[in-house]
Design a protein that fits this description.
Blueprint (H helix, E strand, L loop, with lengths): L2 H38 L5 E6 L4 H16 L9 E6 L4 H13 L4 E5 L1 H10 L7 E6 L21 E5 L4 H11 L5 E7 L3 H17 L2 E7 L5 H10 L4 E4 L3 H5 L1 H11 L3 E3 L11 E5 L1 H16 L10 E2 L3 E6 L14 H6 L2 E4 L2 E4 L8
Parallel strand pairs: 1-2, 1-3, 3-4, 4-5, 5-11, 6-7, 6-8, 8-9, 9-10, 12-13
Antiparallel strand pairs: 10-12, 13-14
Helix pairs in contact: 1-3, 2-10, 3-4, 5-6, 7-9
Length: 361
């Protein structure tokens, strides 16, 4: 690394720390103000909606959740007080927000993403706040006291929805689109249990399919570009983005690197096909939000989280970008039967929506 690059890196780190501190202070001020207002409006339930990052997936979850709550009679600003929180991909900020939510003694806290589940669970060990989670790849591996063998056995104040991305189906689809596919690269963040869970499944599926999975572990978003380029240099014929918040935030960068190398990116988030991935096979996160919102509405209606087993909900959706194959160095073909199953098709840079896809596991 040159002296100029080292200087830029130091400045970037200082700026990131400053942004994180400002976000944390803002969250505390919002919560403090909210507590004061809550004392004056105690009859109205108070809901905290907490996401980890500004991403389309999180926005879809929020939208579906609020639609479900409204349909059940809980409308923001009318029949419930709603406060949104966003950690902007910073774990210390997520921890600060979670502590503030618990301190505010909200009626129910709703979190989307594995890091938010973990931060909230760590701050809520005494069960002072009912907590509903959604958009979590593998809640049983998140270290919050859940037992895969007993979905009904969980902390009595905690319940929610697990949404494990269809990793195996994504690799099988990639092989269907290119039968000669032999080497796939993945950048993944070692500090995210959701990312590690997806990579473990990918390793196993690649062994079954005879594909070599090239891995580039990282610990922060600034490492994503160099890691993706290194995978290309190692001979990756395609790049895969799994259930990783950090890499998901940098998806456009990964796709751009693939475009330069003339290799495709495929993903477990349908939204990535709209920015240049060959396909995204994953969950319809608006529907995930609706399912989570209905669970939260049950809690607001008076049902105890202790009586609600952890659920698994993966309403699958396929998005295809038919513009991509012509840009690739190798032959990738989208069969008509796959095209017919797509819920979203991007063609000539236009997004066309079709009926929702149902894919067999």
């Amino acid at each position: 690394m040159s002296a100029i690059e080292r200087t830029i890196w130091r400045v970037a780190r200082r700026l990131a720390l400053g942004v994180a501190l400002i976000s944390a202070c803002a969250a505390l001020l919002l919560l403090s103000d909210w507590r004061g207002r809550a004392a004056r409006r105690s009859a109205v339930p108070r809901v905290a909606l907490f996401v980890f990052a500004s991403r389309p997936i999180m926005e879809d979850c929020e939208r579906g959740c609020l639609e479900a709550l409204a349909a059940r009679g809980y409308r923001a600003g009318e029949t419930m007080q709603l406060q949104r929180f966003n950690a902007e991909s910073d774990l210390p900020t997520a921890s600060t927000i979670a502590k503030g939510i618990v301190d505010a003694r909200v009626t129910v806290a709703i979190t989307f993403s594995t890091p938010c589940l973990q931060a909230m669970a760590a701050s809520n060990r005494d069960g002072l706040v009912p907590h509903v989670f959604g958009a979590v790849t593998d809640p049983y591996a998140s270290g919050v006291g859940l037992d895969r063998a007993q979905p009904a056995a969980h902390p009595p104040w905690l319940t929610g929805i697990g949404t494990f991305e269809p990793v195996r189906a994504a690799f099988r689809l990639a092989r269907e689109l290119r039968p000669a596919l032999r080497r796939v690269g993945v950048v993944w963040c070692t500090s995210e249990t959701c990312s590690e869970a997806c990579v473990r499944v990918a390793r196993d599926e690649c062994r079954v399919l005879g594909i070599t999975l090239l891995e580039a572990p990282i610990i922060s978003s600034v490492e994503v570009p160099d890691a993706a380029k290194a995978l290309v240099a190692r001979g990756a014929e395609a790049l895969w983005i799994g259930g990783d918040n950090i890499v998901g935030m940098a998806a456009r960068t990964v796709i751009d690197i693939g475009r330069v190398a003339r290799i495709p990116v495929f993903a477990n988030a349908p939204i990535h096909a709209t920015i240049g991935a060959l396909f995204g096979l994953g969950a319809d996160y608006v529907e995930v939000g609706r399912i989570t919102g209905n669970v939260a509405a049950d809690v607001l209606d008076g049902r105890a989280p202790a009586t609600m087993p952890i659920q698994e909900g993966v309403p699958r959706q396929l998005a295809l970008n038919t513009d991509v194959p012509a840009l690739l160095r190798d032959s990738w073909r989208i069969p008509t039967n796959v095209l017919a199953e797509a819920a979203i098709v991007i063609t000539s840079n236009q997004v066309v929506r079709a009926p929702a896809l149902v894919v067999q596991p």
